[in-house]
Amino acid sequence: MPDGPILTYVVNRSALSSILAAAPAKLFIPYLDIIGNVDVRGLEIHDLRCFVAVAARLNFTRAAADLHMSVPPLSRRIRAMEGTLKTKLFIRDTRRVVLTPSGVNLLPLAEKILHQFDTLPDAVSHDLACSSQPIRYGVPPWLHPELSSRLERLEELYAERLTLIKRRRRSQEAISAIVRKDLVFGFARSAPTNTTLSSVVVRQESVGAVLSRAEYGARRSISLEELVKLDYVTDRRDSDTEYRRQVDGLLRATSLLKRLRHNPADHSSAAEAISTGRAFAIAPISEGARETSDLYHSAETVCLPVDGLDFVLPTCLVWSTELAQNDRNSRDVINTAVGLCQGGTPRLDSA
């Protein structure tokens, strides 16, 4: 069963066959032999989505919420996938979920396959009857819920005359795609330095330390001197918290900083180190932002401001200056997106 963006275009098996026939063959050829002699005909695209979601969260409950499904069918999907591939993808027990070496190897391939599958509508969009101009924009995995809701409003405003297509892109991926004009706009954690691009700050987040609630729940802040006595936890996959690269630079200037040595795929051991007061992580302070950006957000942790660490994390909406000047629809959508994301009432140009 098709899912995601392709659902708009694919309504039956024959329609899917038409799209696959029209799509460039190179979309799937590189992956025909990636599993060796294992018969993968039983795998579905949704199986890969389930695998990637669990690999990103290392938590079945959170992954199920991301996928808008319950935990039991997600768990069954993963077990069936492991049976088809004849290998374990996760080590899981009551305390932790960890990627196996096979899971680590499969993750980048699965992400690439999903990306190319999701671009199938783009490959055949020129053949779709009565199609409107596609406007592609990039959304990062860490976007604040308020901005996400405003982008939903953006899609509603243009639903009758334009086709807005959402693409999941991290900062550098979005900037590169905007330069190539593959995206009309996207989001970045800091303003781009490329002179062909324009940007505006649409949100700023104060960053704090994620700490044990039992140890620090009654505190209003923590000093930098106290913080550097703890181990510093960071997810080296950096899949949905790009701001850590910037914070790392500031913390690296503190020679006493200790980085917790743990398997980056072992979320549970790092979470335990934080909840027991031995370590800390970095995340936006606001509750809404923590829900999307903090891998260690739980009832056992609290996020406090750090005295002596004055760091504000900007989220910038970025677009191509030339594209906005030369394409009226793109300019209209960009202006509306800026107005919505800055909290104003947008004024739409006439069609």
Automatic annotation (TrEMBL):
Domain HTH lysR-type residues, every copy: 43-100
One of the Pfam families matching this protein, by short name: HTH_1
InterPro entries assigned: LysR_HTH_N (IPR000847), WH-like_DNA-bd_sf (IPR036388), WH_DNA-bd_sf (IPR036390)
GO cellular component term of the entry, any: protein-DNA complex
Entry's Gene Ontology molecular function annotations: DNA binding; DNA-binding transcription factor activity
Keyword Transcription regulation: yes
Keyword tRNA processing annotated: no
Keyword list, A-Z: Activator, DNA-binding, Transcription, Transcription regulation
Function: Required for the induction the katG gene for catalase. Involved in the response to hydrogen peroxide.
Protein family membership: Belongs to the LysR transcriptional regulatory family.
Protein name: Probable hydrogen peroxide-inducible genes activator
Species whose genome carries this gene: Mycobacteroides salmoniphilum
